[in-house]
Amino acid sequence: MDTNLRRRIRAGDHDAFADLFDAYARSVYNHAYRLTGEWAAAEDVVSLTFLDAWRLREKLDEEGGSVRPWLLGIATNVARNTRRATRRHAAAVARLPRDETVRDFADEVADRLDDAAQLAVVRTALAKLRRAEREVLALCVWSGLDYRAAAEALGVPVGTVRSRLSRARTKLAKHMEPPHGGGQMRGDRITAVGPLKEGNR
Known about the structure:
Layout: H1 2-10, H2 14-36, H3 39-55, H4 68-94, H5 106-109, H6 113-127, H7 131-142, H8 147-154, H9 158-175, H10 184-193
């Protein structure tokens, strides 16, 4: 089935791309969110990923298994480019004259403080990883790709995936230690970066 889908994609079959989107859009979205940490950015990455998949369809091998690693590899590259564009935009905005009016966000965020604090712990820990380590973690731990599929997605050797993932796990364990020695936070946070896997399709 996957070989037939690959051939249809390469041929520019619109129905095949509809099937591709239906099958993998959620997986791409989840991966994109884990890389960007923002819902809106993740949605942009999904759109751009499938546009790039269409543009790059002739580069997809005719033979092979699931096309999921191929799509997640494209999504990883799109997320990198999106982050660069976001940084450039933020730098440009920072150069603009500042508006002295300060909006009161208190009512808007009051009910979300706990969730925001928990997410901040995870995001702070992830931010301390190198980009390559975050990408491997997102592919192998959250998206559930095996080493070979992650290596295909990233265009690197399998050994590189193994070593990056090992470093990422070690760093996360260190950075997610609770500040005051309590056990609850570490357990919760490791859960947050551990078992959220999607099945390989």
